[in-house]
């Protein structure tokens, strides 16, 4: 069976043969080998979660095209080196997420949003239109909108987007060079035996469960400065300064210190998915982001308007 790179959202500065549709950018798939049987057979085997009837209808509507924008058909050849474009669709209706994002700032280059808990940053899994990216594209008619960094679905707070392809690289380089100052707040168990503030370091890697991380022996590749702001019994409010950006770094670091974040369903133990239960948000907030603007040189700082409520 042909292999490919599935589901990639189109880069805003690439030549894209399909337009953004209702806030959703087309995705693409590179084909790395030639195979017989035609395009319909390939798509059915490559995406087993999508029915043959659904692929047949999408091909008939001309919604699957090659790099030149030519509509593909059920019997179209599958050739090595092809890139096919299509719209990601869900086989079911999305459940509306009952929390609204806020726009903190927008100019000709950036849009800074305040993301609520439970809202994914980008389309993934069972989420497509109920994501921060698609909501903002639709609300503000910004087809080139791209997040410069991301937050987990469970985490609330500040997210920076670029909507100008010409200046995007300058802002992306800030995160690559780690010159952006990110500050988080968390409610978690009280960390015993430590003098605050202190820096915690560890070596992190992806765990066998693909959606979580773990700590292992070796040279540290993650670092977090932890400040204590307030304590109420067994729960404390912390200010967290991640000096690196590993997946789930703050969640894993606090859990490893014996103080998992309140309502964390991944650490220390991954619990069954709670679906659309919104009753217990993760008590983690991306409070602020600060940086010197790479174009003007002026300092900029953006802060979330959300708060973490004590249970």
Cα(first) to Cα(last) distance is 51 Å
DSSP strand content:
25-35%
Total helical elements: 5
Number of strand segments = 14
Rg, please?
A: 22 Å
Taking all residues together, what is the mean pLDDT? 90
As a percent range, the share of helical residues equals 10-25%
Summing up helix and strand content along with how strands pair, one would put the structural category as: alpha+beta
Shape: globular
Instruction: Please summarize the sheet with the most strands.
Output: 11 strands, mixed
Uncertain regions: pLDDT < 50 for 5+ in a row?
1-7
Order of helices and strands: EEHHEEEHEEHEEEEEHEE
Give a summary of the structure in a few sentences.
It contains five helices and 14 strands. It has 311 residues and is α+β, with helices and mostly antiparallel strands. It starts with 7 loop residues before the first strand and ends in an 8-residue tail after the last strand.
Please provide a written account of the structure.
This protein has 311 residues and is an alpha+beta fold. The strands form two sheets. Strands 4, 5, 6, 7, 8, 9, 10, 11, 12, 13 and 14 form an eleven-stranded mixed sheet that branches. The protein has a three-stranded antiparallel sheet with strand order 1-2-3, with no helix packed on it. β13 and β14 form a beta hairpin. It is globular and about 70 Å long. The protein starts with 7 loop residues before the first strand and ends in an 8-residue tail after the last strand.
């Amino acid at each position: 069976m042909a292999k490919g790179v599935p589901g990639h959202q189109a880069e805003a500065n690439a030549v894209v043969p399909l337009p953004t549709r209702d806030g959703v950018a087309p995705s693409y798939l590179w084909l790395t080998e030639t195979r017989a049987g035609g395009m319909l057979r390939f798509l059915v085997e490559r995406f087993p979660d999508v029915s043959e009837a659904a692929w047949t209808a999408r091909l008939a509507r001309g919604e699957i095209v090659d790099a030149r924008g030519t509509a593909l058909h059920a019997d179209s050849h599958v050739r090595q080196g092809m890139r096919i474009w299509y719209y990601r669709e869900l086989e079911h209706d999305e459940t509306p997420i009952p929390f609204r994002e806020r726009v903190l700032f927008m100019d000709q280059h950036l849009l800074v949003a305040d993301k609520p808990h439970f809202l994914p940053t980008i389309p993934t899994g069972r989420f497509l239109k109920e994501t921060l990216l698609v909501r903002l594209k639709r609300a503000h008619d910004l087809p080139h909108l791209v997040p410069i960094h991301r937050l987990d679905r469970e985490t609330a707070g500040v997210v920076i987007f670029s909507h100008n392809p010409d200046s995007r690289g300058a802002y992306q380089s800030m995160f690559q060079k780690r010159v952006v100052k990110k500050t988080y707040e968390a409610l978690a168990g009280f960390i015993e035996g430590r003098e605050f503030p202190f820096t915690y370091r560890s070596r992190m890697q992806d765990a066998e469960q693909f959606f979580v991380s773990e700590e292992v022996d070796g040279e540290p590749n993650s670092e977090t400065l932890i400040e204590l702001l307030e304590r109420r019994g067994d729960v404390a409010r912390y200010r967290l300064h991640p000096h690196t950006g590993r997946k789930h770094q703050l969640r894993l670091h606090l859990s490893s210190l014996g103080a998992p974040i309140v309502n964390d369903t991944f650490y220390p133990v991954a619990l069954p998915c709670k679906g659309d239960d919104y009753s217990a948000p993760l008590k983690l907030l991306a409070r602020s982001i600060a940086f010197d603007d790479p174009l003007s040189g002026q300092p900029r700082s953006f802060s979330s308007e959300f708060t973490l409520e004590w249970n």
